[in-house]
Specification:
The complex is a heterodimer of chains A (470) and B (616). Chain A is mainly α and 470 residues long. Helix content of chain A is 71%, strand content 1%. The two termini of chain B are 49 Å apart. Classes of the chains: A mainly alpha (470), B mainly alpha (616).
Chain lengths: 470, 616
């Protein structure tokens, strides 16, 4: 069926926008949270199913604006799944009177995320990126408490600041290369590198890598759980892929910028882990751990320009999938509790065994415990980095592994409280998103070769458009 | 993947996936575990039968491998390999496993933790099935260890009994010694075949004789541990002491055969040198355990020592070095032994159930009248065990003895004496149990067991009697040549009848012969009674003097050197965490400033790189 020519391939995005408006108009009739969330989730599921069903064999759309391949498909999936989890999470939080508008904004930003990762034109990327940013500023502010407002304001200020950096970076990029298309060969190298630096810092703020992390802690802690989960999963994966597109296509990137990324990755994970150790608030601990995870994720930049790109992308997909389940699931799990202090987790095994076991599974997966998808993702990611066989890669992987081990301390602490500390007898309601996430984390962790071969079958043998630096 | 492969996977996959459910469903109602566990094993058995008759009988070997870790450069195959040998084993394991679990339904019906017991039984059976169907040494090893784990859990099932707990530990540690050899063997095999030997079929890629000898002897070391051969036989008798009769049985009938199976599976690696070692280790074990079997009084320990000596026959049969015929002889003995030993264990279990777990045979007596079915079955078991003509043991064991005549006279003499000892200890046990007058209070009030416990006993009794008819076909099925009866077979029969008669004169009636003999050869009697001091040697010399000392030294090192280091690094992390937290002020303008500083630093760094050109 052809309606819009090549634009037909973007129906998974359109369905999200259509859904957004359908939910908005329905909210004029009813403001029942359950109804609206169900509708929104239904549209997200349809979008996910369309993504699964569609075959993307290198489709150019709108001239050179968008280019869809199996690579886009993989990360559509990795963004949509945690997005769906967070959307369902809106059922419980936050306690706002207008869920219709919230879901409208949510679906719009989800749609823009998909557009942002599939584009290779800087201006388009910028528009789509802002199409994600602005709705998420609003989402972060949704709710009644002051902490939510504070979180949103910080996010907004840093976001606006970064937008400035991006725009400046794009202008310099145009000066250096004479085009806005990614992958162009620069005429002025110094300006090109300046623009790349600005773009990394401007785009990277959403990924919350080391010097750009400040807002993330306060925002993740302050907003409602479903939005924390959304910002730390879908939004982060989107940013990572956009950065990957910008940098992997760049013909001059790797000789100089790789070492900067190695430093950033090491600092990010070490900082996140070290500070997480001394946290007593579980939500804040998760926020710091989310920074540490961003460090692990950015290890992937070290494979740029080598033959390991394919394995790295497959592992990145697996890790992103794992990350979506474990981070999304663990943030959303907090909805069952009123108070996120670690003391409040004590005796969980007696209060709700299913909750305790599932939450423990997610924490173990975050720490990279064998048998979970988190371990598999990390393992393959580090393996692909190691296969580049450079001294830098070995250094970064060794530090990452040390960091992973150190992270067992603060994840294990929560587990210890849940299983071995005696605390209140207060019952904890069931949280089915948590259970589902834990189930998938273990199931896919055991059957990882299914995920692996699925990703392998989708990803074209050589992602030529990404090997600018080869 | 076609149907045959899927079915073969299901044989062990079904109980493997099912065992958590067996335990889980027990939390709803304990008895559901029993039904679910029993039906899972029964399904496994049915699938084995189907696969056996659809594929194996027609000569189709099922082989399927997939790559375990696709990202590694080496291919680690994991999959199933079902040829005649594996399927015979799978049939035996699932069938005997089914009968045992059926028996447990009656035997364990009052235990408060029976859901866990049935879960462990199901896991045990599935690991054993996985072991025999594994297509690579790595996978075989994984299931091998799972079997070891389950045996630890089952032996220690009544963990509140100190005997059971220490027996479980002993079994685990002793078999671990063998496992070290096994894993070294796998390593050596991989090394010598440059990775080819990861799959069972790839073992043939080891060519040099000395390499084969090393690999085969190391693998045999693993087999010794699991199959309880000298000097690692010490765990089985203890394993019988604490646990339920049922779990004692699955060890005797299934687990210990894993080692024999391992040798048969890797038989192509065994060179004449290593076969000689195998033969004499087997023969020596037969005599050793046969002698101990005559002096112990605990009924389950008698059976344990008898198990060790019967496995000695299987190992010795493999050591004869007659190629496929050896495998045939050994596996046939294995199957026959599984039936009659299971029969003996279940009858013993039934007796113990009736007389309140009094295990000393000197306190039994006169039970034939009280429990006619059980004790008659035990009689059949004892006949088969000692190789009475036309029973299963006659066809399996005596053939081994007479075949060994053609290989080595010394081996033949040892094996034949072993046959005599077998008859002696088995009928000693039987006469003490069945004849005479009850020698204790519980024995006077014994009564026949429930029907569900008698059904498996009767099935096994029938098999122990008629299993001999399969002999000829069995050998050819495993690729060997049929062995016909010869005049040499008279010797073991005569010896066996002699042993039986002697047992009657010594223990079947009131007699003082045993005491006189014991007093006459006091030193020898004490040597045997103390199990040749092997257990004492392991415990007192190796464990207490050697290993405890070593561990004290490394403990000191660990406490002083390593722990200090760990503590220091932990403190470092915590303190730097506290310092870094201070930067998290919550001021947005400060965050923006940090970003800006970071950006400038990065750009400066980049500029320096470009100017100096250090990195290209």
């Amino acid at each position: 069926m052809t309606i819009l020519g090549n634009y037909d391939y973007l129906w998974n995005v359109f369905i999200l926008f259509i859904g957004a408006f359908v939910v908005l108009f329905t909210s004029l009739v009813t403001e029942k949270r359950a109804v609206l969330v169900t509708m929104g989730a239904a549209f997200a599921v349809v979008s996910l199913m369309l993504t699964f069903a569609q075959y993307y064999g290198g489709v150019p759309i709108g001239g050179t604006l968008i280019f869809l391949t199996g690579y886009s498909k993989l990360f559509f999936i990795a963004i949509l799944i945690p997005g769906l989890l967070s959307l369902i999470g809106i059922l419980r939080s936050p306690s706002s009177a207008k869920p219709g508008l919230m879901i409208f904004i949510f679906l719009v930003s989800l749609g823009f995320m998909l557009l942002a990762i599939s584009s290779f034109n800087l201006l388009f990327i910028f528009v789509a990126f802002e199409g994600v940013s602005i709705p998420t500023y609003v989402l972060a502010a949704y709710g009644k408490s002051e902490s939510e407002l504070e979180a949103a304001i910080k996010y907004f200020i840093i976001g606006a600041f970064s937008t400035g950096l991006i725009i400046f970076g794009i202008s310099l990029y145009y000066i250096a290369t004479g085009t806005l298309q990614l992958g162009a060969v620069p005429n002025f190298h110094s300006i090109y590198f300046l623009s790349m630096g600005l773009l990394i810092f401007g785009l990277g703020f959403k990924l919350a890598i080391f010097p750009l992390h400040g807002w993330a802690i306060d925002t993740y802690t302050g907003t409602s759980n479903s939005i924390s989960s959304y910002l730390s999963t879908s939004s982060k994966i989107m940013t990572l892929i956009v950065l990957l597109n910008v940098l992997f296509t760049s013909p001059l990137f790797f000789s100089y910028l790789k070492i900067i990324f190695a430093i950033i990755a090491i600092l990010t994970m070490t900082f996140g882990n070290v500070v997480a150790i001394s946290q007593n608030n579980v939500k804040r601990m998760l926020a710091y751990s989310s920074i540490a995870q961003a460090g692990y994720l950015s290890v992937v930049f070290l494979v740029a320009g080598t033959g390991a790109i394919n394995l790295a992308l497959i592992s990145l997909f697996m890790y992103a999938l794992a990350y979506g389940f474990m981070k999304g699931g663990s943030f959303l799990a907090l909805d069952s509790l009123g108070n996120y202090d670690i003391e409040n987790f004590s005796g969980m095994w007696k209060r709700n065994p299913a909750y305790a076991v599932s939450f423990a599974i997610l924490l173990l997966s975050l720490a990279g415990f064998p048998g979970t998808l988190g371990f598999i993702g990390k393992y393959f990611l580090f393996l692909s980095v190691l296969s580049t066989k450079t001294a830098l890669a070995f250094l970064v992987v060794i530090i990452s592994v040390i960091n992973s081990v150190a992270s067992f301390y603060y994840y294990g602490r929560v587990i210890m409280y849940m299983f071995w500390r005696k605390g209140t007898e207060e019952k904890v309601p069931n949280n089915y998103i948590l259970y589902a996430s834990a189930l998938f984390t273990v199931l896919l962790g055991v059957l990882y070769f299914v995920v692996f071969s699925y990703a392998q079958s989708i990803l074209p043998a050589i992602t030529t458009f990404l090997s600018g630096g080869l | 993947m076609d149907l045959s492969v899927l079915l073969t996977f299901l044989i062990f996959g079904l109980p493997l996936i099912g065992f958590p459910f067996v335990i889980g469903i027990g939390y709803i109602k304990k008895n559901y575990s029993m039904y679910l566990g029993t039906s899972l094993i029964f399904l496994s058995f049915l699938i084995s039968v189907y696969v056996f008759f659809t594929y194996t009988v027609k000569g189709i070997a099922i082989l399927y491998n997939f790559n375990w870790l696709p990202s590694l450069p080496a291919v680690i195959p994991v999959g199933v390999y079902a040829d005649n040998l594996s399927m015979i084993m799978a049939l035996m394991v699932s069938f005997v496993g089914f009968l045992i679990i059926l028996f447990s339904v009656g035997y364990m019906k009052e235990d408060p933790n029976r859901h866990v017991f049935f879960g462990e039984m199901v896991l045990f059976t599935s690991s054993m099935l996985g072991l025999v169907l594994a297509s690579s040494l790595i996978m075989l090893f994984i299931f091998w260890e799972l079997v070891g784990l389950c045996s630890y859990l089952l032996i220690g099932f009544w963990y509140y009994k100190p005997n059971a707990a220490s027996a479980a530990k002993k079994a685990f540690i002793v078999t671990r010694v063998g496992d070290v050899f096994f894993i070294a063997g796998i390593g050596a095999a991989i090394l010598y075949s440059s990775g080819g030997a990861l799959s069972v079929a790839g073992l043939s890629s080891i060519h040099l004789v000395w390499q084969k000898t090393i690999v085969s002897l190391l693998l045999f070391g693993g087999a010794i541990g699991k199959s309880a051969q000298f000097p690692l036989h010490v765990w089985i008798p203890d394993a019988m002491e604490g646990p339920t009769t049922v779990s004692a049985l699955i060890h005797a009938a299934t687990m210990v055969t894993a080692g024999v199976y391992l040798i048969a599976r890797t038989y192509s690696l065994f060179t004449p040198t290593s076969l000689t070692v195998v033969l004499y280790v087997g023969a020596f074990t037969i005599i050793l355990s046969g002698l101990i079997g005559i002096v112990v009084n605990d009924i389950k320990r008698i059976l344990a020592y008898s198990t060790i000596s019967q496995i000695g026959y299987m190992v010795a049969a493999l050591g004869l070095g007659l190629g496929a015929t050896s495998i045939g002889l050994s596996i046939y003995q294995l199957e026959a032994h599984a039936f009659f030993k299971a029969l003996l264990f279940l009858s013993a279990g039934s007796i113990l159930h009736a007389i309140l777990n009094v295990r000393d045979i000197n306190k039994m007596g006169g039970l034939w009248k009280k429990m006619p079915i059980t004790v008659t079955s035990m009689f059949i078991g004892a006949l088969a065990l000692s190789g009475f003509p036309l029973t299963a043991g006659f066809f399996s064991k005596d053939v081994i003895i007479s075949t060994s005549y053609g290989v080595s006279i010394l081996a033949w003499i040892l094996l034949a004496i072993g046959g005599f000892l077998t008859a002696l200890y088995s009928f000693r046990m039987f006469f003490r149990v069945a004849l005479g007058k009850p020698r204790s209070n519980p024995a006077e009030h014994a009564h026949e067991s429930s029907t569900i416990m008698l059904i498996p006993i009767l099935i096994l009794a029938v098999f122990s009697l008629i299993f001999g008819v399969f002999q000829g076909g069995f050998y050819t099925f495993l690729g060997g040549s049929p062995v016909s009866l010869s005049t040499m077979d008279i010797v073991p029969v005569v010896l066996m009848l002699g042993g039986m008669g002697l047992a009657y004169f010594a223990w079947g009636r009131n007699s003082t012969i045993p005491e006189k003999v014991a007093n006459g050869a006091r030193d020898f009697y004490l040597l045997v009674k103390n199990k040749f001091f092997i257990d004492a040697f392991f415990t007192n010399v190796i464990a207490e003097r050697g290993i405890l000392g070593l561990s004290a030294v490394s403990d000191g090192f660990e406490r002083k050197a390593i722990e200090g280091l760990v503590d220091a690094s932990g403190k470092l992390f915590q303190n730097s965490g506290k310092v870094l937290r201070k930067f998290q002020t919550g001021l947005a303008r400060q965050y923006a400033l940090i970003i800006l500083i970071g950006l400038i630093l990065a750009l400066v760094l980049l500029r320096i790189f470009i100017l100096t050109g250090v990195i290209h």
